[in-house]
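Posting here for the record, re: heme C.
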Amino acid sequence: MLRTLTILTAIFIAPVWAQDLPEGEGRPVTERICTGCHGAEMFSAYHKSGDDWDRTITTMTEKGLSITDADYATVLDYLSKCLGTPAKKLNINKASSCELQTTLAITADQAQAIIAYRAKNGDFKDLDGVKKVDGIDVAAITAKKDNITF
Ligand code: HEC
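Prediction output follows.
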């Protein structure tokens, strides 16, 4: 019984850990490089500026992390955008999925819907255009209107 429970726990908990890090460009590289010594839960709940993440990676190299320049840039970009701080002004026509999620406080699905809409219909011109996106949380978008640029 205990053994079954252990196996079940492993099956159900492992994917949750993997999902800990938000979906975004650079996640696989970050996961590979940053979970060698500890789990992603060590840093996945942080929201820090790019400069602070830069310092964190430097601190990790002092603890033994070895990383190529290319991977450093990828990991820093991922952490800055996906575990970053909300932007004061975000260009909704250029923002990545992670930037949209962080600054507008919307889900990954909604961020994806904005990106798909933009790709199909061209740049948004105003807030009314954004409100037309399928499945968008209009209240959340309206609350962040001062943070959105076009
Ligand atoms: C070579 C091993 C190693 C690798 C690889 C590594 N870390 Fe760490 N990290 C550590 C150690 C050791 C600690 C301290 C653990 C403790 O305090 O229990 C730590 C702690 C942390 C902490 C908590 C302490 C703090 O400074 O806020 C964060 C955040 C963190 N790591 C982020 C990262 C990120 C992001 C990466 C990928 C760039 C990474 N780590 C890769 C060894 C590593």
